[in-house]
Amino acid sequence: MNIGQASKASGVSTKMIRYYDEIGLVRPASRTESNYREFDEREVNELRFIRRARSLGFSMPEITQLLSLWRDRERPSREVKAIAEKHVRELDARIAEMQTMADTLRHLSHCCAGDDRPDCPILADLTGGSQPAEPKAAHGRRR
Amino acid sequence: MNIGQASKASGVSTKMIRYYDEIGLVRPASRTESNYREFDEREVNELRFIRRARSLGFSMPEITQLLSLWRDRERPSREVKAIAEKHVRELDARIAEMQTMADTLRHLSHCCAGDDRPDCPILADLTGGSQPAEPKAAHGRRR
DNA sequence: ATAGGGCTTCCTACCATGGGAAGGTCAAGC
DNA sequence: GCTTGACCTTCCCATGGTAGGAAGCCCTAT
Prior knowledge:
Two copies of one chain form a homodimer. Chain A is an all-alpha fold. In chain A, 61% of the residues lie in helices and 3% in strands. In chain A, strand 1 (30-31) and strand 2 form a beta hairpin. In chain A, helix 1 (3-10) crosses helix 3 (41-55). Chain A is elongated. Mean pLDDT of chain A is 88; it is low at 130-143. The structure holds a DNA duplex.
């Protein structure tokens, strides 16, 4: 199987297959006489594995770990589970962050008339934001 | 005010201030005789604006739009609101995507014993994933 | 006047991905 | 056997937002 067929079979672009090869995520593919990479079912399965893991948001280092566990028939499932759970925690953290952003914006949008007038709580928030702009009344500056 | 002071006052790194300058997000700062950039309160406010908008997840193109609306005292708040709402929709979409990933992984984790044994539904999913691997038993392939 | 720190520009890297060019290779049809 | 077109190879470039660093100029305080 050459790279194009492996690409179709795995759903990973030829670009990315070469890249994974280059960074050592998969073992360097064997080559034909004329220097073409050649792939077998096993390697295609690895590519599919990577594709699926990427689609679940795993980082490349995580995938490196997962791949080596996957190759190891003696692995303790504990280790796989630990990686997955850590990743879930990271996802949850990022979700919470974005949720906070979205909620803030929803609130501001809700308060914004959205008509022809220029007054806009959204811009007001961006202006002042978390920093209270300048106190201006310099003598009694709190904090 | 030179770039270092503007950076402290705005919370934007000098690196990023120069970058925003370079890509034209803020107007090129005026220069002293010795080619130092100089900033006034108004420019520092713009930098704060950008920082706050970044922290709400707006992209640079969106911030470009927001900044120009912010500078325009005649803007209709409608336009600001539209940008914010579009961004909220994008955030929600990305949140939903990540939520799906997290839920999938939570389910798989839940099904994984997480002990010394090698059997692992997480790896099994990554192997077969959405693609049913190869049917192998070729005659009766469901779906 | 000298030291130090701030300023300038320019180059590099990150990460995963894709676009494209230049040139070698294979297979099919004549 | 030769042409054609599809495929392969490597190499370079770009993305986006941020950071690190080097070389060299400038300012200020001692």
